[in-house]
Write a structure and sequence with these properties.
Distance between the termini: 26 Å
Shape: globular
Number of helices: 2
Structural class: alpha+beta
Number of strands: 6
Radius of gyration: 15 Å
Mean pLDDT: 94
Order of helices and strands: HEEHEEEE
Helix content: 10-25%
Low-confidence stretches: none
Amino acid sequence: MTEEVLQAIPHRPPFLFIDKVVETRADGITCSRTFRADEKFYEGHYPNAPLTPGVLLCESVFQAAAIYLVKKAQASGDADFANRTPVLCRIENAKFKGMVFPGDEIVIDVKDGETLAGFYYLTGTVRSAGKIVLQIKFALAMIEKK
């Protein structure tokens, strides 16, 4: 993982599912992650036929979105961003369309939607080998750190 990722969100291994930021845009972000064969969750999901859990693919999208919101706040000059952390508050329409295996690299694309009363509505798409494996709609809120 890059320093850019570590500076943006509080997640750390073994629960960090972004390796690098590929591109930041005004309307979203693209990140990537390679799932290594030695990751512990593969021992139980599934023995002798490892498959990346769908919930971890979702988490990679949420982490990419958190990075995007932090970068967006920084770019707008929001000095208070350091006192807030992005927190998941809604998941809608998660559609799994393929599988991710050990050694696969995923590309995560997050697009900004609307912002209502401090809630940021976004969409995410995860691709592996150029094919869509996950599409999801969700919302994050920027919560005061305690």
